[in-house]
């Protein structure tokens, strides 16, 4: 049976959707224990065009866990873990 | 005041301003729920996916905003790529560090993908096909890894490959402070492939050096630096480590034009152990 998708009320915009782009990396304060991006990667960087070293990027792994608003349902594009798909169909 | 020296109160005012500004900047580290700035990536990126399950299957309708259609390229080469692209599903586009991790933490890692699946992470506007204008004169670095020995490594290797791509650190020439700012990166995208017996990781480049020795020396050096960086800094092998073996290859470069020749006449560059 094909049911029309129910109308889901639009969620409030997430912090991600409303946060503004950093234009000057040097102006960003990081809490103690968090390393800034490597300065030498961004010498003369144009505003908002930054390079980031792996150690800097890995610091976000345990913090940014929220599913992006625009991520489609994975099963709708055939993207499912193999253990799961082997039991289906 | 004559403009040469600030009024007594002026410096203090500026300091207060800067302090207020610093306090108003909240990264995800200081406030994971209500941060108000995000870290832009050098380029926006799009993740694509295909597997036998996405091929020739009528996928359920999803809202177009949640499931953007594959863009139709306007060039003749692009049109030729359409058959190939029909089975490749666009997953999501993103342009900040924070969005990348939200995606990473909610998607299937390569070790859990079905066989014959591929993730393609490409710069926005470049489709993961040879025919795209950004790829047609290029090539790829790739390495093949036996599945049984690398099941526990592949997720980390793919993560580090993606981080070098989105962090824009794959091309050592670009991270050299003497390179003119604004120089375009050679990298157009990265791919992980799962096959019954092995995994493959690939780095696609915008250009490929000529196969004729003596030509394109500076491009060849720059391409080789990408391969060496991939082998050592990204994958964590030592410079001299031999990688070839049953089901395994060295880190090898092949131009897309040579890939079309299928083997014999193709000339590979290898990151020599």
Description:
The complex is a heterodimer of chains A (89) and B (273). Chain A has a domain at 36-64. Helices cover 17% and strands 2% of the residues of chain A. Chain A contains three helices and one strand; from the N terminus they run H-E-H-H. Chain A starts with 14 loop residues before the first helix and ends with a helix. Chain A has 89 residues and is mainly α. By secondary structure, chain B is α+β, with helices and mostly antiparallel strands. Chain B folds into two domains: 9-38; 42-270, 2-Layer Sandwich (RNA Cap, Translation Initiation Factor Eif4e), CATH 3.30.760. Chain B has nine helices and nine strands. In chain B, a hairpin with a 3-residue loop joins strand 6 (187-194) and strand 7. The radius of gyration of chain B is 22 Å and the shape is globular. The termini of chain B are far apart. Mean pLDDT of chain B is 84; it is low at 60-67. Strand 1 of chain A pairs parallel with strand 1 of chain B, so a sheet runs across the interface.
- Global geometry of chain B: globular
Q: Kindly state the mean pLDDT of chain B as a whole number?
A: 84
Number of strands of chain B: 9
Instruction: Write down the secondary-structure element order of chain B.
Output: HEEHHEHEEHHHEEHEHE
The parts of chain B where pLDDT drops under 50 for at least 5 residues are 60-67
Count up the helices of chain A.
Answer: 3
The CATH C-level class name of the largest domain in chain B: Alpha Beta
Query: What fraction of the residues of chain B are assigned to beta strands by DSSP?
Result: 15-25%
| Biggest sheet record of chain A | none
Identify the most extensive interface between protein chains. A-B, 53 and 64 residues
What is the rounded distance between the termini of chain A?
16 Å
Per CATH, the superfamily of the largest domain in chain B is RNA Cap, Translation Initiation Factor Eif4e
What are the secondary-structure elements of chain A, in order, as H or E?
HEHH
Q: What level of helicity do the residues of chain B show? A: 25-40%
């Amino acid at each position: 049976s094909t049911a029309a998708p129910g109308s889901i009320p639009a969620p409030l915009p997430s912090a991600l959707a409303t946060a503004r782009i950093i234009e000057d990396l040097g102006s960003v304060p990081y809490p103690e224990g968090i390393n800034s991006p490597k300065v030498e990667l961004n010498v003369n960087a144009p505003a908002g065009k930054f390079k980031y070293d792996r150690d800097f990027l890995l610091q976000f792994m345990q913090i940014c866990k929220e599913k992006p608003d625009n991520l489609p349902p994975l099963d709708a594009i055939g993207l499912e873990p193999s253990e799961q798909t082997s039991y289906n169909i | 005041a004559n403009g040469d020296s600030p009024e007594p109160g002026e410096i203090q005012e500026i300091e207060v301003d800067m302090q207020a500004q610093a306090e108003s900047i909240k990264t995800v580290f200081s406030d994971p729920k209500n941060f108000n700035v995000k870290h832009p990536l050098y380029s926006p990126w799009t993740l694509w996916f295909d597997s036998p399950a996405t091929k020739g299957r009528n996928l359920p309708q999803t809202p177009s905003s949640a499931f953007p259609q594959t863009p139709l390229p306007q060039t003749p080469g692009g049109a030729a790529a359409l058959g190939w692209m029909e089975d490749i599903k666009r997953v999501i586009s993103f342009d900040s560090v924070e969005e990348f991790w939200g995606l990473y933490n909610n998607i299937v890692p390569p070790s859990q993908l079905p066989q014959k699946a591929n993730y393609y992470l490409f710069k926005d506007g470049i489709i993961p096909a040879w025919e795209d204008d950004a790829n047609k004169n290029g090539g790829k670095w790739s390495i093949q890894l036996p599945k049984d020995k690398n099941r526990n490594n592949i997720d980390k290797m793919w993560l580090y490959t993606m981080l070098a791509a989105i962090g824009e650190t794959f091309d050592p020439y670009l991270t050299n402070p003497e390179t003119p700012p604004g120089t375009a990166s050679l990298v157009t995208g990265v791919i992980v492939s799962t096959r019954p017996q092995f995994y493959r990781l690939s780095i696609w480049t915008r250009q490929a050096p000529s196969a004729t020795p003596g030509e394109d020396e500076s491009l060849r050096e720059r391409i080789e630096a990408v391969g060496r960086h991939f082998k050592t800094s990204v994958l964590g092998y030592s410079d001299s480590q031999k990688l070839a073996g049953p089901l395994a290859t060295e880190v090898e470069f092949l131009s897309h034009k040579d890939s079309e020749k299928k083997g014999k006449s193709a000339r590979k560059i290898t990151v020599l152990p």
